[in-house]
Amino acid sequence: SQQGEEDPQALSIQEGENATMNCSYKTSINNLQWYRQNSGRGLVHLILIRSNEREKHSGRLRVTLDTSKKSSSLLITASRAADTASYFCATDTDKLIFGTGTRLQVFP
Amino acid sequence: EAEVAQSPRYKITEKSQAVAFWCDPISGHATLYWYRQILGQGPELLVQFQDESVVDDSQLPKDRFSAERLKGVDSTLKIQPAELGDSAMYLCASSLADKGYGYTFGSGTRLTVV
What angle is formed at CA A106 by the lines to CA B103 and CA A75, rounded to 5 degrees? Predict the structure, then answer.
């Protein structure tokens, strides 16, 4: 079962543009995490935001969390071709449940 | 940087055969997870261990899948017999027991059942 739904399913942008991905979930959470996955590889943890936090930054990444709307967004600023990957949100309750993912393509 | 080790990297097996995957988590990580990821979808949790104990295996198809972590360190996931629908990436992850830390994933085992 998958708790999170991500939007859009696919996103294509040019290098230098910003990319925004959204995640909606259904139940109360301890924290929400974002992961990146290059094709055919394992997942890499990007950032974790706790349920009592509203915004968090890490380098070119900005994550927001709205627990009242049960939603989160991931913003990648000044995107690069190397950012091309699938991005997943995952909600941490007693276990980590992943969303359906957003496939990001960044064109040089 | 510490890694989660998985083997084999790729596995092709015929349906009805048995297959096993191995995972060695990061040293000190008490919690270990097995996920299955079908192409184009997000990972689905199969089983969660805390040390050597199973915490959650509600999504594990127990008629054919089994998982163990005998000494609370490395873990094995087995499928017997394999079915065509089991073709997927099998991912292992580990984390510190304390909430608030991200999970570290291995590179996965790509299983193809023919």
Answer: 55
Report in angstroms the alpha-carbon separations of B10 from A50, B61, B62, B87.
36, 22, 23, 11
Determine which of A6, A49, A96 to mutate to test the interface with B (most B C-beta atoms within 10 Å). A96
Cβ-contact A100, A5 below 8 angstroms: yes
Nearest neighbour of B56 by CB, restricted to A31, A44, A95: A95
What does the pLDDT profile of chain B (114 residues) look like in tens digits?
779 999 999 999 999 999 999 999 999 899 999 999 999 899 999 999 999 999 999 999 999 999 999 888 999 999 999 999 999 999 999 998 666 778 999 999 999 999
CB nearest to B42's CB, from A45, A50, A98: A98
Structure tokens at B57: 């295996």
